[in-house]
Design brief:
By secondary structure, the protein is α/β, with parallel strands linked by helices. The chain is built from 12 helices and 11 strands. The relative contact order is 0.21.
Length: about 260
């Protein structure tokens, strides 16, 4: 989906380079939104609501925030970027790719430990937590890549603060995004995983086995901003819609906290 969307948008930018101006097709096209993988259901609902107001439905491309930031840095002609943490938005902004005055802190979330829906495992996530014991003799812990992907970074930070990272680190299965970690637990490939509360809510195949204390990791913040490489005239109105009372109510329905 991300590749098809970017190729289509690149074709429009190429045409603009030939004519010396943004073509009418680009002016009329819907915005291309790079959105963190954990936003799949909620951002699709927001795009549907925007379309019901008579606008072209935005094109949505979901992946890990780290991958999306690299796409933006490589010149992808996306209009909006919604990251699952501040670091990757900071990176894009330092590169001069964010339209000044358009960055906002859109949403918040919680970090949870999940197990397959049929599991009876429950874990008290507190200082001294021993996930190795909860995983069993051959169990693995599913996480988004803790070196780059926001959900993994939050999870690693929490376990380090709680004193449980060193023992469980060798047992971590790294997913390319939080939804990849979710899928491992859904399939029963891992008995436990670390995801956002909204991811757990979105899947009937998992259940929450424990909740990480809010103070155990940096606050989970989803910043949103317009990107300078975008050309859609609908980008700014859609950005404002996401930040509006109606837009935030949509995200709240899916379990996000609004700011």
């Amino acid at each position: 989906m991300l590749r098809r969307s970017l190729l289509a948008a690149l074709a429009l930018v190429g045409l603009a380079g030939v004519t010396g101006a943004v073509p009418a097709a680009a002016e009329g096209r819907p915005p291309l939104v790079l959105a963190a993988a954990s936003l799949q259901e909620s951002m699709n609902a927001a795009a549907d609501a925007w379309a019901k107001h008579g606008h072209p439905r935005p094109v949505l491309s979901f992946a890990a925030s780290s991958a999306l930031a690299r796409q933006a840095a490589s010149g992808a002609p996306a209009d909006l970027f919604v990251s699952a943490d501040l670091d990757w938005m900071d990176d894009v902004q330092r590169r001069g790719l964010v339209v000044p005055g358009t960055r906002t802190e859109l949403l918040g979330n919680r970090l949870v430990l999940i197990a397959p829906a049929g599991s009876k495992t429950r874990v008290a996530v507190r200082p001294g937590v021993d996930l190795r014991r909860a995983l069993g003799p051959n169990g693995r812990l599913a996480m988004a890549n803790p070196d780059a992907v926001p959900a993994g970074k939050y999870g690693k930070a929490a376990l380090e603060k709680l004193g449980g990272w060193t023992t469980v680190a060798p047992l971590v299965v790294r997913g390319e995004s939080v939804r990849a970690a979710l899928a491992l637990v859904e399939r029963g490939a891992a008995p436990l995983g670390i995801v956002y509360a909204t991811d757990a809510r979105a899947s009937a195949k998992v259940r929450i086995a424990g909740v990480f204390p809010a103070g155990s990791h940096p606050s989970i913040v989803y910043p949103a901003a317009r990107l300078k490489n975008g050309t859609s005239t609908d980008a700014e109105p859609f950005r404002r819609f996401l930040n509006s009372r109606e837009g935030k109510a949509i995200f709240a329905r899916f379990g996000f906290t609004t700011r």
